[in-house]
Every structure is written in C-alpha cells, then in structure tokens.
C-alpha cells in the first residue's frame, strides 16, 4: 500500500477524538467484530501498547511483517503504520494514550521519549496484571479517576521499557515537518492559511502539503484541521465554553462553518459530541 493510501485514524477507524485521559480495551472486544483483521493504518495523536496473552498475531509494522506469539507486548508510536490479523479468539489488551497528554513519557525532553518513539516488540512477562488493573479502573467511576489512570498507565509503560530492547536508530521525522507541526500547534488559536504556513517555513504550499502527506498521511491543510478538531474536542468535554466560544478560540470567524467542519470530522455536531461525555 502506497504511503498516501494508508489511512490516518483516530482510534481503529472511529471518526472521533479521544477526550478521556486514555483508552484500554480487550483485543477480542474490538477485533472479533472486524473479522479479526485490522487493515494497515496510523494514528496522528495516539500512542498504543498491545499485550498478547493468547493466540497469535500476524503483524505489519512500518512495512515489516512478523508473526507474534504470546506473551508479547508491541509498542506502536504515533505515526507508525501498523496492521493486524489475529487468530480467532486471541486474548489480550490494547492501551491507547493521547501523546500530548503524557509529556513525561512522550515530550521532547522526556527520558523515555527515545525508546517510546520507535516501534518494538518485547516479552510480556508480568504485564497482564497491570493491564487487568488498568482495564478494571478505566471502566469505573470513582474519585480521582484520571489521576489514578495516569499513574497506572505511567507505571505500565515504565514496566514495558524495562523489557524493551536497546534503543536502535529509527526512522527520523523530516525536520521540516517537525517545524510545521510545532508551528501549527503554536498557531491553533489563529486563522492561518496554508500559504501562511508555507511562507513561514520557506517552501511552497504544494511542497509543504506533499511532505506532510508522505509523513502523516494527511495534507497540510487536513493536518492543521485535525489538530484544531482535537483541541475542540478537549475544550467541549473539559470546559464549559460554548461551541461558539470554542470556534472563536480556535481562529474560526464563522461558528457555523466551525460546526460544519466539526460535523465532517467527527460525525457529530459540537453539541451532540459534548452530550456523549456528560454524566
């Protein structure tokens, strides 16, 4: 599959962002409904860790095919192309972390960033209990839930790193796209055009979009839009800002246009999206 044909998903193809602090589910709950096959794809914002407890996985990871037997953990950084064919009845877990929400793990200055920033497969000894605990607490509603989940996920990742192979050189992100990403994140509250971004980076809009498509699977315009929609989701769930306020906050001059963009990306209106997370 060509790089520009690999889909970029939020979570298993779902057209929604991830407003919770993390997501954890059993492999069987997701894969069984997909005939045990998940086509190659990548995630723009999400880091994933898979635990295989029983069964078998035929794994495609950044163009390399491998057969995985239990116990095993698979580290899948954001932007990594990955696909799976599971044997029927495979048991295990998938932990999904919004990378931006865990700077101590994934930030540029984090001590774990070099190891976590590359895909790898490691032994899964002792990991099942950690996943089981996280899975149980994720399903509960309790005081300080987010704090507890964040602490347990961080401890789980630390245990994963203890089993990880030594850091090896891995594919380096194009520095021009890294500069574009940094600029786009700093400009979330501005109404910048593609031409504005390209000019700031001393390249043509067409060249910028081509580089972004090759690196992320999205055009430069779609990439900026995806960043804005993720921030919109966070603001709708975690603040009481109105949809109109969110629109203006993210540089949209017309709240109605913001609503249409949100609907196109999330398949929900801003109001309907917020309602899904109200308790």
Can you give a write-up of this model?
Helix 7 packs across helix 8 (205-216) and helix 10 crosses helix 11. A hairpin with a 2-residue loop joins strand 5 (57-61) and strand 6. The chain has helices spanning 27-31, 103-106, 113-116, 128-138, 145-163, 175-186, 194-200, 205-216, 220-238, 243-249, 255-266, 270-276; strands at residues 8-9, 23-26, 37-43, 46-54, 57-61, 64-68, 72-76, 82-86, 91-98, 120-123. It is globular and about 50 Å long. With 279 residues, it is α+β, with helices and mostly antiparallel strands.
> What is the CATH homology-level superfamily of the largest domain?
Regulatory protein AraC
CATH topology of the largest domain: Jelly Rolls
**Helicity level:** 40-55%
**What order do the strands of the largest sheet run in, or round the barrel if closed?**
1-3-8-5-6
Count of alpha/pi helices: 12
Low-confidence stretches: 12-16
Largest beta-sheet characterization: 5 strands, mixed
Order of SSEs, N→C? Answer: EEHEEEEEEEHHEHHHHHHHHH
Q: Write the CATH architecture name of the largest domain.
A: Sandwich
Q: Which CATH C-level class of the largest domain is it?
A: Mainly Beta
Tell me the domain tally.
Answer: 2
Class computed from helices, strands and strand pairing: alpha+beta
Task: Please count the beta strands (DSSP E, at least 2 residues each).
Answer: 10
Average residue pLDDT: 87
């Amino acid at each position: 599959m060509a790089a520009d044909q690999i889909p970029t998903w939020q979570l298993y193809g779902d057209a929604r962002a991830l407003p919770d602090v993390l997501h954890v589910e059993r492999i069987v709950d997701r894969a069984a409904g997909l005939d045990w096959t998940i086509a190659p794809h990548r995630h723009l914002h999400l880091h994933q860790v898979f635990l295989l407890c029983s069964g078998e996985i035929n794994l495609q990871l950044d163009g390399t095919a491998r057969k995985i037997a239990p116990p095993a953990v698979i580290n899948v950084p954001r932007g990594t192309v990955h696909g799976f064919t599971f044997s029927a009845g495979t048991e295990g877990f998938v932990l999904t972390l919004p990378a931006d929400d865990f700077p101590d793990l994934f930030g540029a200055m984090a001590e774990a960033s070099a190891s976590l920033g590359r895909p790898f497969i490691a032994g899964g000894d002792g990991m099942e209990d950690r996943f089981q605990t996280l899975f149980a607490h994720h399903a509960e509603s309790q005081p300080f839930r987010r704090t507890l989940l964040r602490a347990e996920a961080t401890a789980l990742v630390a245990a994963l790193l203890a089993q990880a192979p030594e850091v090896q050189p891995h594919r380096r992100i194009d520095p021009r796209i890294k500069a574009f990403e940094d600029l786009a994140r700093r400009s979330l509250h501005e109404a910048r055009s593609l031409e504005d971004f390209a000019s700031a980076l001393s390249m043509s809009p067409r060249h910028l979009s081509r580089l972004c498509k090759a690196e992320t699977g999205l055009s430069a315009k779609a990439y900026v839009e995806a960043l804005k929609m993720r921030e919109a989701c966070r603001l709708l769930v975690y603040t009481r800002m109105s949809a109109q306020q969110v629109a203006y906050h993210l540089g949209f001059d017309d709240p109605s246009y913001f609503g249409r963009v949100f609907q196109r990306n999330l398949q929900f209106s801003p109001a309907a999206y917020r309602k899904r997370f109200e308790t």
